Amino acid sequence: MTMETVGGGTPAATAAANSRREPKPPWLKVRFPGGPNYLRLKQLMQAQRLHTVCEEAHCPNVGECWEAGTATFMILGDVCTRACGYCAVTSGRPGPLDLEEPFRVAQAVRQMGLTHAVITSVDRDDQADGGAGLFAETIRWIRRLAPQTTVEVLIPDFGGNWEALATVMAAQPEILNHNVETVPRLYRRARSKGSYPRCLELLRRAKDLDPGTISKTGMMVGLGETWPEISAVMQDLRGVGCEVLTIGQYLRPSEKHLPLARYYPPEEFDELRAEALALGFSHVESGPLVRSSYHAERQVMGNLRRRQTLPDAEIIPLMAVQSGGGQR
Length: 328
Hints:
By secondary structure, this protein is an alpha/beta fold.
């Protein structure tokens, strides 16, 4: 496969990607959500006043995942302080943190009977620690209320605040995920407040802080990257010890977002998966509809090292979250 084929695509594929009314290729069509489990989880999220990235980011897999009883919780509110060119989450000035949120997330995890919980967030550059403290409290509450559940956190970069990263790692999630998203050349256009070197440094430091935690990242294709650029990113990721990789198709949320360069057919995702595995990744999910937490429980369960349940002494300070109430 040549760089020209991957980077620019065939004229037909490029025209399809750039046409507003051109239908998506058949491999990207999914069923409209609405099954009984989907409706039950939607009611549960509303009752607990919780957000999910499944809904906020317009994930195409929301129907499948919710019907299977899995969801990715989004903490720290639903308004992001950044405005990445590919992301559907609302950006602006967020409200105060909800200090009871970690407890409610853990309650929902227990009610859902999850074996593996995924916690992510918006960026909170307005907070000194970027929200790291609430990530850690959420992990600890899940340990308390659902001790058999493993925890994956998909974290922001905390603006390069490595003490904030250490706060999260001290809570010992089984999986630490931070998405590289795209190739370095496209960072300024796609995520102007992000930094490719900072992303790699975060993954490296996370592994240094706790070698027992699985490190994971995800990237999307279809923004105009070339195959050699994708290969270089995968090599960089292995260089910092990243173990799990997800690769999915960029889908333009609206006309206000970055244009789509082209659709990758399923066979190209298969080639990317084979290349990544050859580089030494322990697990690779690569497909048009793959997202960071899609089938997360299937991706790494064989590699997980389950953490010990926290003793009550480590939970007591957090119980003020439940009884104290209020926000800051």
